[in-house]
Design brief:
The chain is an alpha+beta fold. The protein has three domains: 263 residues, 2-Layer Sandwich (BirA Bifunctional Protein, domain 2), CATH 3.30.930; 109 residues, Herpes Virus-1, CATH 3.30.40; 92 residues, Anticodon-binding domain (Rossmann fold), CATH 3.40.50. It has 17 helices and 23 strands. The strands form seven sheets. Strands 3-9-10-16-13-12-11 form a seven-stranded mixed β-sheet. The protein has a five-stranded mixed β-sheet with strand order 20-19-21-22-23, sandwiched between helices. The protein has a three-stranded antiparallel β-sheet with strand order 5-4-6. Helix 2 crosses helix 13, helix 5 runs antiparallel to helix 7 and helix 5 packs across helix 8. The two termini are 28 Å apart. It binds glycyl-adenosine-5'-phosphate. The site of glycyl-adenosine-5'-phosphate has 19 residues, from strand 10, strand 13, strand 16 and helix 13.
């Protein structure tokens, strides 16, 4: 799927046209990097959240859920390191007055060189048959030169990011002669750090308002409730606390639809273990989380791990699950072994003991933590882009179909009387009333049946139920399957059971 700009555009416009995602505040020309979930989008999103919640909280007896507040005591963000270090390096172009992330300007530059390599490979593949791509990449002088350039710049650039060398970043932007996409000029300001947290005031100004932050991650709400949950839930280590909720980041580069938003949702789980057992546990969750993704039936080649070589100062292992989005492999979920860093910091800043008494070892200790953290919106985009299909049928017509995993589909079954007369709508309504108790269904009697099937294909409904004249005689309806377009008849009495079995 990698680097398919056109496909990505089609997916974005499909999401809008068919009621999945709208730009926020659209009648006021929108608000950058903020989106609203529409009538089908919210169903799909809820199904993703339920699927995660079930697999984490319902299926694991030692994991419980919470729902902590978005506003939290401001010292929490001092303790977690977000006030001092949750920054992006920014640079402004003095002519266009536009602001950019310095690291993204350099990444874009590298991407352009990668595109040049891809073009060379594509050209050669057309010219030579058979074509050995690996051999071509390692021997073609131009490609080798480009690859060397990418490697050298990447090494210097990573070092600068690690050292927070802002002067070096500016010098590199100048050396690479990177221009502003708007003004075309190289008239840059210095690079400086920009904190990503949104701040606001709590309380009335007269009473002396305090600055609070919109949480940039849900995880801290779990850490500060560790003791409460452990005590009231009588939890025994190892145990986990899960949470789904909104997070806010003032992202400067926000141009990949719902991939990078300013207001988004996370599904996070912190697993508390005995010190020394964290790496075994990290390995376990790494495998479990990949199994969860694959259980949706999405092809394994769309996923890969990206193990971190350079670790954050509080982590002793970290990996990303990357997904092959239409713009290439990018982070979908992070799994981190965060040691006892967060709880220790909160002990220090709050002055409260955040310890666990282990009856088996008779020890009192700060547990170690393994975190799994996935963005709901990124998962939504992964599922949607994987499902989107435009195909030409045997009769030459085009069918746009969302091949969504059936359990995530917004509408599970569409109830379609063949015509709006002869008593068929009445039978269809009776079926609808029964099925909607257990399944999200949609009744539709407008337009020819073929058009109605296409509408359901476009929103990913796995089953269409058609009620025709024969139904009045044999008490049977036709089930039409979305993916195979196969049709078969079942009795109305067994319809509900047949459908429920399929989920
Ligand atoms: N508690 C750890 C944490 O927040 P992160 O890698 O910054 O780690 C975790 O974020 C996940 O949240 C990411 O893997 C991604 O799926 C999602 N995420 C992060 N920033 C996002 C944004 N601006 N828009 C949408 N999703 C985002």
């Amino acid at each position: 799927m990698a680097n398919n700009e056109n496909l990505f555009k089609q997916i974005i416009s499909h999401a809008k046209e068919y009621g999945f995602i709208f730009p926020s505040s659209e009648i006021y020309d929108g608000l950058a990097a903020v989106y609203d979930y529409a009538q089908y989008g919210v169903e799909l999103k809820n199904n993703i959240k339920n699927y995660w919640w079930k697999s984490m909280v319902q299926f694991n007896e030692n994991i419980v859920g919470i729902d902590s507040a978005i506003f939290m005591h401001p010292t929490i963000w001092k303790a977690s390191g977000h006030v001092d270090a949750f920054n992006d390096p920014l640079i402004d172009n003095k002519d266009s007055k536009k602001r950019y992330r310095a690291d993204v300007l350099i990444e874009d530059y590298l991407k352009k060189i990668e595109d040049k390599i891809d073009k060379e490979v594509e050209k050669a593949a057309k010219k030579f048959s058979p074509f050995d791509e690996q051999l071509f990449r390692s021997t073609n002088p131009r490609v080798v030169e480009y690859a060397k350039k990418i490697e050298t710049i990447t090494q210097r650039f990573s070092q600068m990011l690690n050292d927070e060398d802002l002067v070096g970043l500016k010098a590199l932007i100048e050396e690479l002669e990177i221009t502003c996409p708007i003004s075309g000029s190289r008239n840059w300001t210095d690079v400086r750090q920009f904190n990503l947290m949104f701040a606001t005031q709590i309380g009335s100004v007269a009473d002396g308002a305090d600055t609070v932050y919109l949480r940039p991650e849900t995880a801290q709400g779990i850490f500060v409730n560790f003791l409460n949950v452990y005590k009231t839930g009588r939890m025994k280590i190892p145990f986990g606390i899960a949470q789904i909720g909104k997070a806010f980041r003032n992202e400067i580069v926000a141009r990949q639809f719902i991939f990078r938003m300013r207001e988004f949702e996370q599904m996070e789980m912190q697993f508390f273990v005995r010190p020394g057992e964290e790496l075994k546990c990290f390995k376990y969750w790494k495998e479990e989380r990949m199994k969860w993704h694959l259980s949706l039936g999405i092809a394994p080649e769309h996923y890969r791990f990206h193990d971190h070589e350079k670790l954050a100062h509080y982590a002793n292992a970290a990996t990303d699950i990357e997904f092959d989005f239409p713009f290439g492999f990018k982070e979908l979920e992070g799994i981190h072994s965060r040691t006892d860093y967060d709880l220790s910091q909160h002990e220090k800043f709050s002055g409260k003991k955040l310890r666990y008494f282990d009856h088996e070892t008779n020890e009192n200790y700060i547990p170690y933590v393994v975190e799994t953290s996935i963005g709901v919106d990124r998962m939504f985009l992964a599922v949607l882009s994987n499902a989107f299909n435009s195909e030409i049928l045997e009769d030459g017509s085009e069918r746009v179909v969302l091949r969504l995993p059936a359990k995530l589909a917004p509408i599970k079954a569409a109830i379609l009387p063949l015509v709006k007369k002869d008593g068929l709508p009445e039978i269809a309504r009776e079926i609808m009333d029964v099925l909607k108790q257990d399944l999200m269904c949609q009744y539709d009697d407008k337009d020819a049946i073929g058009r109605r099937y296409r509408r359901q294909d476009a929103i990913g409904t796995p089953f269409c139920i058609t009620i025709d004249h024969q139904t009045k005689e044999d008490h049977c309806v036709t089930i039409r399957e979305r993916d195979s377009m196969q049709q078969y008849r079942v009795s109305i009495d067994t319809l509900k059971g047949t459908l429920i079995n399929k989920f």
